Amino acid sequence: MTQTIVIARYNPEQDEKPHHEAYQVQSDDNTSVLDALQQVQQQDPGLSFRWSCRMAICGSCGVMVNGVPKLGCQTFLRDYPAGLVITPLSNFAVEKDLIVNMEPFLEHLSAIKPWLINTAEGTQPHVQTPKQLAKYQQFANCINCGLCYSACPQFGLNPEFRGPAALALAHRYNLDSRDQGKAQRMPELNAKNGVWTCTFVGFCSEVCPKKVDPAAAINQGKVESAKDMIVSVLKPSGAR
Amino acid sequence: MLQLDMDIIVVGGGGAGLRAAIAAAEASPTLNVALVSKVYPMRSHTVAAEGGAAAVTLSEDSLQSHFFDTVAGSDWLAEQDVVEFFVQHAYQELVQLERWGCPWSRKNDGSVQVRRFGGMKTERTWFAADKTGFHILHTLFQTSLKYPSIERFDEYFVLDLLVVDQRVAGVLAIRYSTGELVQIRAKSVILATGGAGRVFHYNTNSGIVTGDGMALALRHGVALRDMEFVQYHPTGLPGSGILITEACRGEGGILLNKDGYRYLQDYGLGPETPLGEPRNKCMELGPRDRLSQAFWQQQKLGLTGDYQGHAVVYLDLRHLGDKHLKERLPLICELARDFVNVDPAKAPIPVRPAVHYTMGGVMTDIDCQTSIQGLFAIGECASVGLHGANRLGSNSLSELLVFGKVAGERAAALAQQNDHVSHQAIAQQTAVQQALLSGMPGHNTNDSLVAIRTAMTKAMEEGCGIYRDANSMQHCLDQLHSLRQRYQVLNVEDQGKVYNSALLQHLELGFGLDVAMAICSSALARKESRGAHQRLDEGLTARNDAEFLQHSLAVQQQDGSIDIRWQAVTITSLPPGQRLYGDCGAVNEGKAS
Fold it and tell me: B442-568: which CATH topology?
């Protein structure tokens, strides 16, 4: 069947601001938003959007569908009988059409030291039980799609906020039984753009396509941050 | 035009590229490493690998056994010294990833768990649920962030290599966000650009897997080796080709034809193994080439089913139970639900073969060095000689790590000895590319990129599919020649600078056409059947070691056509033998030991 979709278009070399355009696409039960965008691109090669794996693991194709952040490849036209409006991810600067500037996201991610910190040398694997793995596994499933930043009202107000994915990743490493870097990450979590900026709206977890639940990670991070700050008040500086 | 100087350039931000960049940074922290990638590194196709990474781990396993499986799996076309080096170093690399934080799945005692995989005699595949590639890629990406000497150039598309007197001098790239041309000089360059699956129509590969690095090297006279060997993965989703991991069968999944019959027993892989008792190297755990060929035979017999117009067989996982599926194959449950509306705990998944992996690639020696000094190639874009005529599942993720490290270290050593080539020496080459770019709009506006690309992918599917014959391949090659001519005058339909995706797709298609020519020409020249290259022509349906125990080398000529040369295979300890699976294979190995 033929379906109409509306896409936000913006070419910085020609347009003052974004505008909406309607397109006709052929759809069946399996047609995803990404498929539809590809069809439109065949009619209009000037349309730009990011995509790659089309199986919801590379994290490239995040867009807003009727105002809600979604992965284009995992969102199907069949679920939108009343029609779709596809716009770029909110809270990021639009570069062209559906492409946004992801650099702030990458900066936040790097800032929380997202690598295993452990000074011990060794040629064999660490021992880690399935129970220890389960403690952080969910938070290691983030595909860096950025949907949670588009869902986050605080990030919308304050782009300096480290944001859901970065804070969840910090929590992932802090929870890893092999990691010794928590003390190095806590200042970033305690800082003014860390966990306390979150007002626990929870929309980030709702839109997460991988059920990472960043809101839970941040909430647990607040408990850790509170403990960390109490300890730092009780102990004279330099004694930690 | 922007001009930059770096010590080392890594082209490609997937598993191989990241591992190489880290190795270079560790070898020499004073060297500047440019990581140039057309997408953000964590979008790279490594992310889609599901099943796992192989290394000898259990006490009952041995390096000899991994060596034997890999060489036999390659139908004796692997470089045996390379395989020896690989099996010796794979374990340490997987441990290194563990120590960088990779969340490998564990046994109750906290040790790393291994699973069965096709063509492997013993369980030796490390995994992180069914998202192994994803976890490897993110672990490497996140680890790379701690090295200040690695500078990322995300969303930069490499147009050309700079080469002076058979020595690499850097690369020319387009910055996708601005359309600006960037010249980066370097003392060594590592190609880690992935495979070329997207020159075929149905495939498991991401849209970015367009053969860029292979074509870059080919255009500078480097040979592409063993390009006729293209792996069809036996279990992709119908239509989309989305990958349903071999780990499903490692866990005990079975393949059924439309009558519910386990047809693999008819193709030298039997006898039928009891439900819930998978046996290594038998039935569903045979190698990928054999399984994809069995599908083709079943289709010819009219024994495949239909899913919305696609011929399919059925992957049945129901007996594994909901809990086990959710724990070990969570991504598969999700993909089956979203893309074919199947709950694998309740119904079999319709599947069919889809192009998955290019065994061949840029020819290198065991140190990952190409025929151009300072130019290295690793991972799927390379042919270091590990896979021969058929790759075993879970060898390629380990390959990224083992040879990524080698290339990073070698590139660093070379960069310390050498200086940059003068700007003058690369000025002309740069000017040529600059002129090409600004003159990009070809005159023909009646043709389209999509039309040419679709014609190429369909021609490849028909001419260079699971089974091939001289007529179909020649027809394919003729079509590729004419598509190449159409391409050369094709207009680029968008003239913008900022994120011009039409331009990038145009350049990718040019790369793809060159690689497709190499694949088809190599396939035509190999007049025998071996591994993933199976011919239907009379007299050519069997392996012919007397004439073809050799690597094909595809070399591009001035007019774009491909000349095929041959190279002897390095055999160290395992002379060519019969490649047997199922009960016959067990008997054969008994004799060998």
Answer: Methane Monooxygenase Hydroxylase; Chain G, domain 1 (1.20.58)
* Residue A45 to residue B493, Cβ atoms within 8 A: yes
Prior bond to A153 cis, omega within 30?
Answer: no
Q: What is the spatial distance between Cα A19 and Cα B553, in angstroms, rounded to a whole number?
A: 52
In a domain, A66, yes or no: yes
- Choosing among 3.40.50.300, 3.30.70.1130, 3.40.109.10, 3.90.700.10, the CATH entry for B234-354 is 3.90.700.10
Q: Does B106 touch chain A (CB under 8 A)?
A: yes
Q: Indicate the pairing of strand B180-185 with strand B310-316.
A: unpaired
The alpha-carbon gap from A144 to the nearest alpha carbon of chain B, in Å, equals: 8
B185 labelled catalytic: no
Chain segment B201-215, per-residue pLDDT in tens: 999 999 999 999 999
Stated pTM of the model: 0.97
Residues 162-191 of B with CB under 8 A from A: 177
* Domain co-membership, A199 together with A228: yes
| CB contact B107 to A (< 8 Å) | yes
Does A85 lie in the same domain as A11? yes
Residue ranges making up the domain that contains A63: 2-100
Interval A11-20: pLDDT, tens:
999 999 999 9
DSSP assignment string, A132-155: HHHHHHGGGG-----HHHHH-HHH
> Which of residues 450 through 479 in chain B touch A, CB cutoff 8 A?
450
Q: Are A113 and A162 in contact (CB under 8 A)?
A: no
Instruction: For residue range B22-45, list pLDDT tens digits in order.
Output: 999 999 999 999 999 999 999 999
Nearest to B498 among A96, A130, A136 (CB): A96
The burial class, CB within 10 Å (0-12 / 13-18 / 19+), for B145 is middle
Per-residue pLDDT at A240: 42
Mutate to test the interface with B, among A11, A57, A102, A115 (most CBs of B within 10 A): A57
Interface contact B109-A127, CB threshold 8 A: yes
**For residue B249, with 0-12 CB atoms within 10 Å meaning exposed, 13-18 middle and 19 or more buried, which class applies?**
buried
Give contacts of B40 with chain A, Cβ < 8 Å: 60, 102, 106, 144
Judging by beta carbons within 10 Å of its beta carbon (0-12, 13-18, 19+), is residue B313 exposed, middle or buried?
buried
* Residues of chain B found within 8 Å of residue A114, distances taken between Cβ atoms: 142, 145
A96: nearest CB among B47, B207, B499: B499
A197 and A80 together in one domain: no
Number of Cβ atoms within 10 Å of the Cβ of B122: 19
Alpha helices, DSSP H, located in B301-346: 322-328, 330-340
Give catalytic status of residue B45 as yes or no: no
CA A188, CA A166: separation in Å to the nearest integer? Answer: 11
